[in-house]
Amino acid sequence: MIRVLGIETSCDETAASVVALDGCSAPKILSNIVLSQIEEHAAFGGVVPEIAARAHVEALDGIVEAALADSAVSLDEVDAVAATAGPGLVGGLIVGLMTAKAIAAAANKPLIAINHLEGHALTARLTDGLDFPYLLLLVSGGHTQIVAVRGVGDYQRWATTIDDALGEAFDKTAKMLGLPYPGGPNVEKAAASGDAGRFAFPRPMKGSAQPDFSFSGLKTAVRQAATAIAPLSDQDVADICASFQAAVADALGDRVARALARFRQEFSDKANPALVVAGGVAANRTIKATLEALCSEAGFAFVAPPQKLCTDNAAMIAWAGIERLRAGIVGENAADFVPRSRW
Ligand code: KG4
Ligand code: ZN
Q1: Ligand 1 pocket, 141 CB below 6 A?
Q2: 131-308 maps to which CATH number?
Q3: pLDDT for 52
Q4: Annotated domain spans of the chain
Q5: Would you say the CB of residue 213 lies under 6 angstroms from ligand 1?
Q6: What integer pLDDT is reported at residue 181 of this predicted model?
Q7: Pocket test for ligand 1, best of 12, 136, 140, 181 (most atoms within 8 A of CB)
Q8: Keywords in UniProt for this one (predicted)?
């Protein structure tokens, strides 16, 4: 039995969780506490780093206690403490990693420094027991990446954004249109009653031989369209949202199709290839439907872990800790580990 306490504070969620793995049965999430700071940041239309760091300081001790209490596992009984050490907002990373170091030192447990992206990358093994290799599409407020997940600690980034993250593009579009933060869900809601054919927004990078994403041109096109027809009626906003979402799904689909083809080539002996989606934007139904269709066409399984585990959480960090313990690669001495805002 391996039990790991995980801590996540890299952005605007304060989270702690205990995950257990018992022999050959499926892993169990014994507790998974996530405190979102959305309300603290809403008035500013985005995450304010200083506010985030302070909120983590105030909340983290209580969240860790709650995660232990919920799991009915005492600190003595955990095998290790795993904490996100980057990438992310440095203030939050310091709070989480320092707290984890203190807990680990006091309880005499090993500390494992986890890369936040590794947490997202390995979640599908926690929820769906996927075998390596598989393809991961991570689309959140901070990240837009396609990663070939080949093994624990063995990740190859095939594509990233050359400008805005996809969630950021949703959030900025919402802001331009006067929709509340966080923008993604509100853009999706408005789009439901909109005409996706009214505006012919660009599909950045579509057809390009370069694998990466780009969304800033699309954002500019939305701004120009909105300015040209201002003041905007509710129907105008709905039509812009629907047209924006269609452009995003189309552009994203083009990039993902390329990656699926590359995966087929590079891992030609993989019998049941899978595409895993993670990140807040993966909640979007239009995007999900586009990806599902692509996967079924290309013969890939489409794996979308429950939304609660797709967005930032500490179960994925605890799980990454278990994966590393099990693989015998806990990395450098984490007690000396300095948080890395970029990693
Ligand atoms: O993964 P996440 O919760 O946090 C990080 O960024 O790490 O992702 C949040 C992002 C925000 O930009 C939000 O607007 C976007 O995910 N998002 C959505 C939807 N729900 C959340 N974007 C599009 N459609 C949605 N339904
Ligand atoms: Zn994340």
Answers
A1: yes
A2: 3.30.420.40
A3: 86
A4: 2-126+309-336, 131-308
A5: no
A6: 85
A7: 140
A8: Acyltransferase, Cytoplasm, Iron, Metal-binding, Transferase, tRNA processing
Q: What pLDDT, on the 0 to 100 scale, is given for residue 37? A: 86
Q: What is residue 330's predicted lDDT score, i.e. its pLDDT?
A: 83
Q: How far is the CA of 169 from the centre of ligand 1 (A)?
A: 10
Distance CA 243, CA 229 (A): 15
**ipTM of this complex prediction, to 2 decimal places:** 0.98
CB 149 within 8 A of CB 134: yes
Homologous superfamily of the 2-126+309-336 domain (CATH)? ATPase, nucleotide binding domain (3.30.420.40)
**CB 278, CB 137: distance < 8 Å:** yes
**In whole angstroms, what is the distance from residue 317 CA to residue 34 CA?**
12
Which stretches of the chain score pLDDT less than 70? Answer: 332-333
Predicted local distance difference test score (pLDDT) of residue 252: 97
**Predicted local confidence at residue 39, as pLDDT:** 86
Q: Is there an atom of ligand 1 within 6 Å of 87 CB?
A: no
CA distances from residue 243 to 68, 214, 286 in whole angstroms, order as listed: 46, 17, 11
Domain 2-126+309-336 and domain 131-308 have a common topology: yes
